[in-house]
Amino acid sequence: MPDCSENYEKEISDGKNARNIKCKYCNSVILTPSTAAFTSFEFQLPLIRQSKINEQNPETENVSLFWAVTDMFTFQNVGFSNTVGNNKYLTCADCEAGPIGYHDLSNKMSYVALSRVIHS
Amino acid sequence: MAKKTYDLLFKLLLIGDSGVGKTCILFRFSDDAFTTTFISTIGIDFKIKTVELRGKKIKLQIWDTAGQERFHTITTSYYRGAMGIMLVYDITNEKSFENIVKWLRNIDEHANEDVEKMILGNKCDMTDKRTVSKERGETIAREHSIRFMETSAKANINIERAFSELAEAILIKTAGKEPGDPVDRVTVDRRPTNTSKSCCN
Ligand SMILES: Nc1nc2c(ncn2[C@@H]2O[C@H](COP(=O)(O)OP(=O)(O)O)[C@@H](O)[C@H]2O)c(=O)[nH]1
Ligand SMILES: [Mg+2]
C-alpha cells in the first residue's frame, strides 16, 4: 500500500520535520523538530507484526516516505537492532516497537518511515 | 558537517553473568506486546537515550553484550571507548554476586582505567527468592568505592535512576578535563546549548 503523501505535507517545513517525531505506541520522543530531512525512495520494510517468524524472509511492505538522519546521535531516543545484511533496524527506545525505519551501514544514514511514527 | 544537537556523548556498557537481567534492564522487561515481533527475533544491539543533566544535553549510547559473557570472552573491543559500566548481579543468585569480583578484574584488565562503574543488584522484586542481602551489595561496592543500587527490570525500580546517576558521575569526572584529551572519549561540541529551544517532554 503506498503512503499518502498529502497527509504529511504540513509536517515538512524547509525540508525538515516541523514537529516532534514520536513513537505511535508509547509517545517516546524519537526526534525533535527540524532534525531530520524529508526524503522519498522505495524500501521494503519488515512489518512490525509478522504472522509467522521468519528471520530470513520476513513479511515486508513497500515504504516510500522517510525522515533521513545523518548522525545517529541526533536521535533523542532510539534503539538499533543487531545487523541484518547491510542494515540495522530502528526501534522505539522505550517500548521496542519497530522497525520504525532502518540504518544503512554503508552510508551511515538512518531513515525513519513517516508511516511508522506520529508527529506531534 | 551537521550541527550537533547535544553536548556530550557517553558510551555505557552492561556487564555481568548471563541471566542476571542485563538485556531486560536495557530493553525493558520483555513480556509485553511486542515480544513476538520481527525486532524481538533479531535482538537489539544498542540504544541511544537523551538525558539532561546540569543544563547539558547528554546522549547515552548503551550497549548490551551479545551474550559473550556466557563464555567469559568479553574483550577489549567491547570495552573500547566505554566511559561507564553497569556491573549487574542477580540478588537471587549467589554465584552471580561472587562473580562481581571477577568482572571487576576483567574491567581493570580491558577497560579504560578511569571508567566509571556502578554495581546493580537486579531482580529486587523477587524478595522471597533473595539470597544476597542488600548489605552485602553495599559492602562490596564500598570496598571498591563504587556506587550501588538495587534494581528491578521487571517492576521498573531504579532503572532510570541508575543510568542518570552513572551519567552524572561521568559528567562530574569529565568536567575538569579539557576537550581533546587523547582518550576514546567522544568529545563533541562544547558550546553552551540553547536550552530554551528544547521542546521534548
Ligand atoms: N523477577 C525478575 N526477573 C528478571 C528481572 N530482570 C530479568 N529477569 C529475568 O531474568 C532472565 C534473564 O534476563 P536477561 O535480561 O536475558 O539476562 P542477561 O543474560 O543478563 O541479558 C529472564 O528470564 C528475565 O525475564 C527482574 O528485575 N526481576
Ligand atoms: Mg542478554
Question: What does this protein look like?
Answer:
The complex is a heterodimer of chains A (120) and B (201). Chain A has no helices and eleven strands. Chain A has 120 residues and is mainly beta. Chain A has a single domain, classed as Metal Binding Protein, Guanine Nucleotide Exchange Factor, Chain A (Beta Complex). In chain A, the strands form three sheets. Chain A has a six-stranded antiparallel sheet with strand order 5-6-10-9-8-7, with no helix packed on it. Chain A is globular, with a radius of gyration of 13 Å. Chain A starts with 11 loop residues before the first strand and ends with a strand. Chain B is of the alpha/beta class and 201 residues long. Chain B is built from six helices and six strands, in the order βααββαβαβαβα. Chain B has a six-stranded mixed sheet with strand order 2-3-1-4-5-6, sandwiched between helices. The two termini of chain B are 28 Å apart. The chains are: A mainly beta (120), B alpha/beta (201). The interface between A and B is large, with 39 and 32 residues. Bound molecules: guanosine-5'-diphosphate and magnesium ion. Chain B: Keywords: GTP-binding, Lipoprotein, Membrane, Nucleotide-binding, Prenylation. Chain B: One of its GO terms (molecular function) is GTP binding. Chain B: InterPro entries: P-loop_NTPase, Small_GTP-bd, Small_GTPase, Small_GTPase_Rab.
